[in-house]
Amino acid sequence: MSYKNILVPVDDSPISYAAVEHAEKIAKAFGSKVIVMCVLSVDPLMSVDFYKVAPAITQHVLEAETNAKGRLDDIKQTLTGHGVAVETIIIRSVPTATGILNVADEIHADLIVMGSHGRKGLKKLVLGSVAQEVLGLSQRPVLIIKQ
Description:
Strand content: 15-25%
Shape: globular
Organism: Acinetobacter shaoyimingii
CATH topology: Rossmann fold
Keywords: Cytoplasm
Protein name: Universal stress protein
Oligomer: single chain
CATH superfamily: HUPs
CATH architecture: 3-Layer(aba) Sandwich
Helix content: 40-55%
InterPro entries: Rossmann-like_a/b/a_fold, Universal_stress_UspA, UspA
Order of helices and strands: EHEHEHEHHE
Family: Belongs to the universal stress protein A family.
């Protein structure tokens, strides 16, 4: 098996960075390209009439994008410095798992490497599990990194 394109979805959690480290090791072994992506959360207020006039919400969305871009730039600099080919992508306005799977299709990913927060019980019920959803829906191999 060869992995030419490895997709790594990240957020700002330590488990995401652990997934990046695993992807780097695999990329070095196979000479792969790593595509690191962030999905900016779907804004639940997007359809609310006052959305366009709520500066605090607009500011929050802009800050989220700035933070995601900074995180991706840092990861790209690190991986490039370690000799790994890297591309970064930011996806907006879709549910996280959908964004991940869409990008996997677009880039013809051979492998998805992602962290799992390992939520259980009520937290899992309320917050869900993106990793579990991607694992269940993906037609590609998915490597789940746990804490």
